[in-house]
Write a structure and sequence with these properties.
By secondary structure, the chain is mostly helical. The protein is built from 7 helices and 2 strands; from the N terminus they run ααααααββα. The chain folds into 2 domains: 1-32; 38-194, Serine Threonine Protein Phosphatase 5, Tetratricopeptide repeat. It has helices at residues 2-25, 52-63, 67-74, 87-93, 102-132, 135-160, 180-194; strands at residues 162-164, 177-179. A two-stranded antiparallel ribbon has the order 1-2. The mean pLDDT is 82.
Length: 196
C-alpha cells in the first residue's frame, strides 16, 4: 500500500517537472524575431527586379488549397446526386446555411482573404512600377492578379449565390452584398479590362 502511494506521488512529481520543463524551455523562442519574414517597412521598392515578388506571393496563395475547399465547392455540382444523402450537404445545395457549417465559414474566409491578398499584390506591384521602368510587365502582372481575384469571386458566387464585391480595400465594411448575377457581371467586366 505504501509503495502505491509513493509511486503515485513520484508520478505526480515527475509530471509536474515535465510540465515546468516544457513551459520554460520555449519561452526564449517567443522573443526571437520572425524568420523568413520581411516587414513592410523593410521592403525596398526601388529595386525594380523585385516587382515579380508580389506576383509570386499571389500565385502561392492561388495554388495553396485547403483540403475542404474543393469538397465544399463541389457539393453544388451539376451531377446526378450533387449533395448525396447527407442532410447538411442537401441544405448547402439549396443555399440554406447554418452557423454550424464550419466548411462554409472556412470557404468564405479563404475566398475573401485571398481576394484581399490579390489587392495587396496589385498595390505592391504599383509601388515597384516606377523603379522597374517597364509598364507593360507591370500591367501584365496586375492583369494576372486581377484574373486570380476574379476566380475567387467566381467561387464565391457559386458557393454562396452572391457576396460582397470589394472594389477598394478602404471601404470593405460599407459595401452591400451582391447577388450571383452582379458577381458574374463584375467578373465579365474585370476580364474585359485585363484581356489585352
Amino acid at each position: 500500500m505504501k509503495n502505491i502511494k509513493h509511486i503515485k506521488k513520484l508520478i505526480s512529481i515527475l509530471f509536474g517537472m515535465l510540465f515546468l520543463l516544457v513551459v520554460t524551455s520555449c519561452e526564449n523562442k517567443l522573443y526571437e524575431p520572425y524568420q523568413n519574414t520581411v516587414l513592410t517597412e523593410e521592403v525596398d521598392y526601388t529595386i525594380g527586379s523585385n516587382m515579380i515578388l508580389p506576383l509570386l506571393g499571389a500565385y502561392e496563395a492561388f495554388y495553396t488549397i485547403a483540403w475542404d475547399q474543393n469538397i465544399t465547392t463541389g457539393v453544388r455540382g451539376d451531377d446526378v446526386n450533387a449533395a448525396g444523402d447527407q442532410a447538411p450537404m442537401e441544405e448547402q445545395d439549396k443555399f440554406l446555411y447554418l452557423s454550424s457549417h464550419w466548411n462554409l465559414n472556412s470557404l468564405m474566409t479563404i475566398n475573401y482573404s485571398r481576394i484581399i491578398r490579390m489587392f495587396t499584390a496589385i498595390s505592391d506591384i504599383e509601388k515597384y512600377r516606377p523603379a522597374a521602368n517597364n509598364n507593360a510587365l507591370a500591367n501584365q502582372y496586375i492583369a494576372e492578379c486581377r484574373t486570380m481575384r476574379a476566380w475567387y469571386y467566381l467561387n464565391q458566387g457559386r458557393s454562396f449565390g452572391g457576396g460582397v464585391i470589394i472594389d477598394q480595400l478602404d471601404n470593405i465594411q460599407s459595401q452591400p452584398a451582391s447577388n450571383k448575377a452582379d458577381i458574374m457581371q463584375y467578373i465579365v467586366e474585370e476580364m474585359d479590362e485585363v484581356i489585352p
